[in-house]
Amino acid sequence: MRFAKTSKTYDEQIALLRHRGLRLESESRTRHQLCNVSYYRLSAYFVPFQYPNDPDHTFRPNSTFDTAYRLYLFDRELRLLAMDAIERIEVAIRCKIIYEFSTRYGNNWYEDRTLYSKESAFTKTVSKIEEELDRTSENFIRHYKEKYGDPPNPPAWMALEILSFGQLSIMYKNLKANEAKKAVADYFGISYTVLESWMEHLGYIRNLCAHHSRLWNRKLTVKATLPKIIRYSWINTAMIRPDKAYLSFSIMGYMINKITPGSYFVGKLKALFHRFAEVDGRRAGFYYGWEEDPFWKGITIPWTYKARIVYFRTTRIIKHVRMRVWGRAIWGKRKVA
Hints:
3 domains
């Protein structure tokens, strides 16, 4: 079948939304938002407000552009929160790998073939590191090459800094299950096989976020392993869907709580859901009452985010009461008439 659709002007996009039954509170605001976030990107956030399997993409009654746009904003902030958490986790894991292996096997342990599970894994890893070393413009690598010649490649605490999280994840997976590898995972209270899975999963989540892909209701294809044994407090797994973002954020919460106790992460996550209370968290695997899980309740939240949560709750209650009073007033006027 030949693709016959053509691009549309902003006026045509607005007309199409109205034709499909979407209410626009402000046409000028809608136009401005369409100028900065494409219609096609926003279309994924229109779907929950449309009738399922409708070829005409008709919106349900009382659906508004602003509500759909708020869903987009929620997803955007969810991605930003994930990016911030994964950055901290990546730095911490990188630090532990470099420390545990360097103190046991020397500065350039990453060039030691005996530390890898397979010859092919060793060859690919070292080749990738050397490729990155040749390509990088980092001053500390240039300084090493200009000042030192033996050994040719810099120590692990320099060389591994230029690897991406995905490359670091593959490297860790390719290493033998030795004392150092187990020590890295043990720091986080999990087995090395679980850490391998979590690193791969978080790298996948990071890539989704870096490319501004939808996270909120996505069915995740790279799933994280649920640990059978874990040292620190962990979520109730009875309600878990491994293909949804709730597990991803639980992993982030668990690791951040180890890396930075008292971090803003959990407070920000809870405040985000209270700020966008109209968003159905179940689409992301956040089941009703997830905040009451002992895991989440046991993590200390800074008072600033406790205050924000109270503020959003209070605002929501006031809005609800106003709507009820307004509705009764309108209904009373109708009865008198």
